[in-house]
Design a protein that fits this description.
- The protein is mainly alpha-helical.
- It has two domains: 195 residues, MFS general substrate transporter like domains (Growth Hormone, Chain: A, Up-down Bundle); 217 residues, Growth Hormone, Chain: A.
- Helix content is 79%, strand content 0%.
- It has 20 helices and no strands.
- α1 runs antiparallel to α9, α8 runs antiparallel to α13 and α14 runs antiparallel to α19.
- The longest helix has 34 residues.
């Protein structure tokens, strides 16, 4: 920590804002626990709420739909309201609606809650969080701020998910799976409420947002230029193809229980394993990207993802082969988090026009993160239409096809950006020699 964050007397330094950084990092992890925990306890959730796979997929699609809207509107809200106000609202409202799930309401109510979470955990949260992190530290500490936050989210996920799996296992053994699920819902709902209170006090000295003329207006001409830029759509394609795995990996949980005969607790632990992989995969790909280039590292990620998916497809479903499944799943985890860490580093390789950067990132996120809405709907329909192993195999084949598209796009990208990538690599070498 001493090497990463240097202690000094500057009140604006990251070290002197460490408390805020820690609670914001925790916030970035916990806000998504309620919208996504259903995947880690997939079979139990379906049984407890009386759902089928298609309905389960629709729940995710509703959440993803609001996510698409959020990237377009959230930035405007972040400019108009205090970060403290938005983040506190996000956690308190999400935690309170989480408590409603303890009554095990109808499918329609569950969908309505998920729709609201699309608003409270994305529209009023993510842009405000990015803004809050960006306000911490000096100009030469922005990379450290976001690096600490992303790595810290992985570590926080690892800890709380391990705790809830243990909690679920203990309560389920004593009182049944439904009570085990209730304990998880209660844990995450209360955690959100407490974090909301913590943020309210941690950011109490925040200044009011600047009221710049036209700050919340969109420049139509800039949007047109972004849409016409070929690199915009190449990044969108690679992001869409890689992020599909980030959404679909939770289906390894029901796959392990239904095809390999694993327990619900083991299957949940298999999903939690992703969070153990995340910090090392993200930091490792960043270092490799600096050494050999982001797009080349991204393309290698698609290769590793394809190998993992092929493994999941060909491994016969039985208790004796579950070790091979774990290896295949681990390869997918490493690949998806390696690529996630590099999504926006590609902008540097193509010298994306700086004046278009803000609008470009918003549009790239809107289309690149569409798997949030599409994958749950497709997966749910496949699993109901083709029961058993067939539905999962079709899903893995779609993901494999997307990996092939992403890899091919990466090859074209490297050809188009050859000179710029060579320039960046030479600069990095010169910096190392000078150091």
């Amino acid at each position: 920590m001493g090497k990463f964050l240097k202690k000094n007397n500057d009140p604006n330094s990251l070290w002197n804002n460490l408390g805020k950084l820690l609670i914001l990092t925790m916030a970035g992890s916990f806000i998504y626990t309620l919208p996504y925990f259903r995947f880690y306890y997939y079979d139990t959730f379906i049984e407890a709420f009386g759902l089928n796979n298609t309905q389960m997929g629709m729940i995710g699609t509703v959440y993803g739909f609001f996510g698409v809207l959020s990237y377009l509107v959230g930035g405007i809200l972040a400019n108009k309201f205090k970060t403290r106000t938005l983040l506190t609202f996000s956690f308190i409202s999400t935690g309170l609606t989480g408590l409603i799930l303890l009554t095990y309401p109808s499918y329609q109510i569950v969908v309505a809650i998920q729709a609201f979470w699309g608003f409270s955990t994305l529209m009023t949260f993510w842009p405000a969080l990015v803004k809050a992190i960006n306000m911490l530290g000096n100009e030469n500490e922005k990379g450290k701020s976001f690096g600490f936050m992303e790595g810290g989210r992985g570590v926080t996920n690892m800890i709380h998910m391990s705790l809830t799996v243990a909690l679920f296992g203990f309560i389920a053994t004593q009182m049944g799976d439904k009570m085990g699920l209730s304990s998880v819902i209660l844990f995450y709902s209360v955690a959100d409420l407490l974090i909301g209170v913590g943020i309210f006090y941690a950011l109490r000295n925040e200044a009011s947002p600047a009221s710049e003329e036209g700050a919340s207006k969109l420049d139509v001409t800039m949007i047109g230029r972004v849409l016409k830029n070929k690199y915009t759509w190449m990044i969108v394609t690679m992001m869409f193809c890689s992020y599909s795995m980030n959404i679909a990996y939770t289906y390894f949980t029901p796959y392990a229980t239904s095809q390999f005969g694993s327990s619900v607790v083991f299957a949940a632990a298999l999903a939690v394993m992703a969070q153990y992989v995340r910090p090392l995969a993200a930091s490792g790909s960043g270092a490799l990207g600096d050494k050999i280039g982001s797009s080349k590292t991204f393309s290698l990620g698609f290769v590793l993802l394809a190998l993992g998916l092929v493994g999941a497809l060909v491994i016969p479903g039985s208790a004796s082969t579950i070790g091979f499944l774990i290896a295949a799943v681990a390869a997918c985890y490493i690949a998806m988090y390696s690529m996630q860490a590099l999504h926006f580093t590609l902008l540097e390789e193509c010298e994306y026009p700086k004046e278009l950067l803000g609008v470009g990132i918003g549009i790239i996120c809107t289309f690149g993160y569409l798997p949030e809405m599409v994958i749950p709907m497709v997966a749910g329909k496949l699993l109901d239409t083709y029961p058993g192993a067939a539905g999962y195999r079709y899903l893995f084949m779609i993901l494999l096809g997307l990996a092939a598209v992403g890899f091919t796009t990466g090859l074209v990208w490297m050809r188009l950006t050859k000179d710029r990538r060579a320039e960046l690599l030479n600069k990095n070498k010169e910096k190392k020699v000078a150091a």
